[in-house]
Structure formats: C-alpha cells, structure tokens
Design brief:
Chain lengths: ~220, ~120
Amino acid sequence: MEKHVVVIFPHPDDEAFGAAGTIAKFRQEGVPVTYLCGTLGEMGRNMGNPTFATRESLPEIRKKELQDACKVMDVELKMLGYRDKVLEFEDLSKVSDHLKELLETIKPTLVITHYPEYAVHPDHNALGAAAIDAVSRMEESTRPTVWAQAFMRGYQEILGKPDVVQDIRPFVKTKVKTILCHKSQAQGVLGNVTGEELTEENMEAIALEHFKEETFYTWNFENI
Amino acid sequence: MKPIDLNEVQEQIDAFAGKKVFIHLETTNGAYANHVNEKAYNVGAFIRNAQVTYEHGKIKGAGAAYRVGLKTENGWVYAEGLNAWELDEKNRLLMAGHDREGRLMVSLEISETAF
C-alpha cells in the first residue's frame, strides 16, 4: 500500500478531470494525498457560463474553487505560485529544484503527474517534465514511483496501452463533485470532453456516465 | 461584466487619456483548440503590464461586437470583438469579448496601477 501520494499538475481542475477518482480511492484506503498545484489558472478562458469571472477576478475565484475541491477530496493543498500559460518559459531546472525540495520533505511513495510531451497543454508538459526530472534526481532508496498521465490525440498508438488503469466507478460521485467545485471551468471543459450540450441540470448525469476509468503510465527511470 | 454601452465606455476611455497607464491585451482560442478540433489552430497572444500613454482612444461598432483603438505617440493599441465591460473595484477598465459559451476570446484592460 502507498504511504503518501503527491499529485503534481499545473491548473486548478487538472486534478478533478485527471485523477479525482484515483485520489478518492487512495483517501478511502487512508493514504494521505498532497496536491501540488502549479498555477491558479490565471489565463483560463472559461469565465463561467453565463460569465461571472473577469480576467482579473479569475485567479481568486479559481483559488477558492481549488480549495473547495481539495476539501471534497480530503487532500492537503500546496499552491506553487507559478503563472498559467508561461510555466514552460520558466527556468525549468529551478522548478525541478523547487519540486525536489518539496518531495524530499513530503517523502511520497507515489507521484502522479502529466506525461511530458503527451499531455496537450504546454503547462502540463513542462510541469510533468520538471516533476519527473526532480524525482529522477532523488536517491534511489527514497525515490517514489511515478504515474504519468497522457491524453494527446493518438497517444496509445505511440506509447502503447497505459499499464495503470484505475476503475473509478465506485468513486465517480466524488469525482463529479470535485469537478463541479470548479464552477468557472466545469461546463466549458465538460462540453469539450463529452461533446454534449451541457446545462446545470444534466451536467452531473453526463459526467457520471462519461467517467469510468483514469489511466496512467508507470515511468521507467531505467531509460533516462 | 455588463454588455457594452458605447457612450459609457467612451467616457471611461477618455478618462485614462493622457495618463501613463498599464495595458493588458490578449486574444486566445484556448490551449485545447487543436486537441478538440484537428482542423483548428492554437492561436493566442498577450501582453501584460505594457506601459503606454495614449493621446486619445475611441470605441466603435454596434450590436455585440465593438472595436477599441488607442492612439499612442508612436503607434496604436487595438482590440476587436469586445462585447462586455466593467470598471472594477480597483478602478481598472476591463473590456472583453466572450463567445456564446461565455469563454473569453479577447481582452483589453486599462489601469493606472500595474495588473
């Protein structure tokens, strides 16, 4: 059994769409989970539907949504303070050092992050790469396992089938509740994911039907 | 934000004219445009906290699509597709264009203090 799980994603709501079912499963097993969230999603274009956020009020709104989501999942939250959309232009060796320091303090047995170059958003790819670099530089005896999440179009044709497939059906209510905490984003993102017209009323039912599993690749550090 | 009223916004643009102001200018179709639709391009640009002084500015357009142009000493600041605005609690003029789903497509903001 895992002793502590650390989730490293750049945006408030990445944890909800990508891993909330898996996180809920770990929490039910009594495993502590910490979410290291890279940015506040300051540059998101979803402003709620109907619009209730502005470019300037969005960071505070998303911060609150993130805190609420972490309460629903019952996980510890650390916000890393980077800025949305420009993470890939930071000095990534410094970001990696920052993550390594945090990981050496938290001492997780498992890290969940994005699969570099296969996770669509440049922030996902950059923070995933920094996280994997940080873990690779840890002492082998304390080095956590890494599960990397890919979802770029056609990723399975290149990477093969993911080896970690989490059946999240028993936890889908928690996942949907977590997604709905991100009120400014939920409708816009779910519309993209499911391709269906969403309203406040049908959102939960559609999400329940759509989310059945979360998948990851165990990172092979031998290949570095 | 509220729908743009030409006269109200013009009044606000006039109030910042001749002052040293900070600009946030942005356009985006999102980081997932090509992921969602193979034929779409990911296009976006932003500049945050550019310092300019404009001698005058105008808002033009009608219905749900407005353009703003600010004439500076050496050039222009321009945004198209604006349809909503507000003066926020920090006295910053926020203008944006949202699509049918409420997503931001373009934004032009003017402030006397840095964003």
